Amino acid sequence: MNLSRRPGRSRHPRRKPPTPFRQRGGKPVTDADSPSPDVAKTGSPVVMVVAWLWVAVPFLYGLYQLAEKSSKLFE
Fold first, then answer.
1. What's the Cα-to-Cα distance from 27 to each of 33, 34, 36, 68, 69, rounded to whole Å?
2. b/e 14-41 (16+ beta carbons within 10 angstroms → b)
3. How far apart are CA 68 and CA 66, in angstroms?
4. Which long-range CB contacts under 8 A does 48-56 form with residues at least 24 apart?
5. Is pTM, for the whole model, over 0.70?
6. Best exposed site among 1, 8, 18, 41 by fewest CB in 10 Å?
7. In this structure, what DSSP letter does residue 4 have?
8. Integer Cα distance of 9 and 13 in angstroms
9. Closest Cα to residue 51, out of 61, 41, 43, 62?
């Protein structure tokens, strides 16, 4: 019995393509349902600054603590 693979044939059957997610009404979600790339959603500049500060301040504090503690290793 020869168990070698024959060229052009797969040992595994082909899978069905995945079904698209469905919205609440049962209608499949398509690319037409997504907003067009021409429409840019812009938020308030104040919200953007607050969001950046919310992330940047703890990050910079962590970098400061890292530099302070790692400098003691090289003394």
1. 10, 14, 19, 57, 57
2. eeeeeeeeeeeeeeeeeeeeeeeeeeee
3. 5
4. none
5. no
6. 1
7. P
8. 10
9. 43
pLDDT per position in the chain (75 positions), as tens? 555 666 666 676 777 777 666 666 666 666 665 666 655 667 889 999 999 999 999 999 999 999 999 999 988
DSSP per-residue letters across 9-62: --SSPPPPPPPPPB-TTSPBP-GGGSPPTT------HHHHHHHHHHHHHHHHHH
Token readout for 40 is 């840019």
Phi and psi angles of residue 22, each rounded to the nearest 5 degrees, phi first:
-115, 145
At residue 10, the pLDDT reads 64
